[in-house]
Input
Amino acid sequence: MIIGAPPAPEDRDRGGPGTPLLDVRGLTKHFGGKGGLFGKAKSGVVRAVDGIDFSVAKGETLGIVGESGCGKSTTARLVMQIIRPDAGDILFDGEAVGSQALSLGDFRRQAQMVFQDSYASLNPRLTVEETVAFGPRVQGAKPAAALAKAHDLLHRVGLEPRRFAGRYPHEISGGQRQRVNIARALSLDPRLLILDEAVSALDKSVEAQVLNLLLDLKRDFGLTYMFITHDLNVVRFMSDRIMVMYLGKVAEFGPSEPIFEKPGHPYTAALLSSMPSMDPDHRTQEAPLTGDPPNPIDPPSGCRFHPRCKMVSTLCSQAEPRLSTMGEDHLAACHLADPQSGHPRLAAA
Ligand code: SF4
Output
């Protein structure tokens, strides 16, 4: 067996290829709030994640995009159980996380996370090799085997062990630190990697190198990614499917190309129109997104995007749109995507 190589995928694929690796239903997290006694609703509650459903297929990359505060990073932390959900079910390869069949510890060995701040994620007192060997050591690997695995993984992420193994986090660059974080995440042979703005702090040239490295590792290790970013160019480059979030809700979900070519939600269209394009044939005609997202403590009634939407009608402030099918596996939470909604623009079309 190659040191650092994960167990064969068929040994771990309990649910079979048709079962999503991650299946999330009704995930909810509200922060803060006062009152709530004697049946009264709490006031001042931040609805960070408000009952979202999504799945990630085995071997795919799901990109999650949205403006800051939309709930994408909270979603990642809820999936990892770094913060406890208020409600919702999380199934990993068909088994409920935290159940008898899949303890939290077992899940966390199979799902790892890489954060944006490469320096804060590392222990400044551990060398690079100690950092990567730490997980296998805690899991019971002998020191020599853990070190050999760390060296193999460092090599795989482009850090030659002879040069980098003995260095401390402050002695290497931001891009190199993020490679160490990736090697550490791989040290427990995970199946799912959640990358939360993992390249956002890097220079563009270093970012491109790390993105290509992530694609290589995904192929070589048979990984599945949840890729969270605010950068639409990056999400398009990396993702098979995309989930667009707005104020704690799913605005749009679907395969990457249909979403980029023909977005179904005016919010997605506005986000895309704010992307710089070098191709004159691919410039969107939508007006760019203006203003900040509304306060998540008191989200707008009906469709949460209605105060900023060019296509708004009275219906939009009164009724919350459901996720409607736009095409195969392509959903948008907009009355314009639902032929039965009664949005006046549908009659005019
Ligand atoms: Fe705009 Fe109405 Fe669609 Fe919301 S439901 S995105 S306000 S058109």
Remarks:
- The chain has a mean pLDDT of 91.
- Residues 266 and 311 are 7 Å apart (CA to CA).
- Residues 204-221 form the longest helix (18 residues).
- Residues 265-266, 303, 305-306, 309, 311-312, 316, 321, 334-336 surround iron/sulfur cluster (CB under 6 Å).
